[in-house]
């Protein structure tokens, strides 16, 4: 049964806890068609406000999980409620711990060797998890036929794509009908980097305080423009438009 949804800047966000998100994702595996799961954060909602194509994709996703503390704050500002943050790296780990050989997984994206290392970490947490392929590739249209062939040949039921937003979700949306066995495709951003140990996550107290962006800025100062969008532009847009789309 679908959970309630709220609206921020015209984008639907599912008001779910981590456990409820896993339940919803498991239910999606029983569908005949491939479901697109997204993990919107503050930066992605800023992108959706100015990118009509991305906005249409995020509005049509089967499940939009709130992947930043900024969304929880924005929900309160607009007199709505999100019960919890459902971070991408956490939901991937939690979901994969429930899977077995009946639902094989393919990891696409990340830097060279990163997806393979992330796969090992996921399998250590759940020896019953069956990962049938990892591939870095790229979202280049020229590579799409080969990547789709790899995924279909693997028999994967679950596909995680780590090309970064918005590219990963635009890529998934474009190729949803090309997947023969995939029933759930999800854009996961930097999840493979965290799982593989290539990038250290912020300490828990910073995550709880909603200050993970400070940690990311210290480790990756090149992200300053993206952090500006998340920490400054997003709150200003919410204060101005609230639940409504800016366009």
Produce the secondary structure layout.
Elements: E1 5-8, E2 11-14, H1 18-28, E3 35-38, H2 42-50, H3 52-60, E4 63-64, H4 69-77, H5 88-96, E5 105-109, H6 114-125, E6 131-135, H7 144-154, E7 158-162, H8 167-175, E8 184-187, H9 191-196, H10 204-208, H11 212-219, H12 224-241
Parallel strand pairs: 3-4, 3-8, 5-6, 5-7, 7-8
Antiparallel strand pairs: 1-2
Task: Walk me through this protein's architecture.
The chain has helices spanning 18-28, 42-50, 52-60, 69-77, 88-96, 114-125, 144-154, 167-175, 191-196, 204-208, 212-219, 224-241, and strands at residues 5-8, 11-14, 35-38, 63-64, 105-109, 131-135, 158-162, 184-187. Strands 4-3-8-7-5-6 form a 6-stranded parallel beta sheet, sandwiched between helices. The chain has a two-stranded antiparallel sheet with strand order 1-2. It is built from 12 helices and 8 strands. The model has no long low-confidence stretch (mean pLDDT 92). The two termini are 31 Å apart. The protein is globular and about 50 Å long. β1 and β2 (11-14) form a beta hairpin. The protein is an alpha/beta fold.
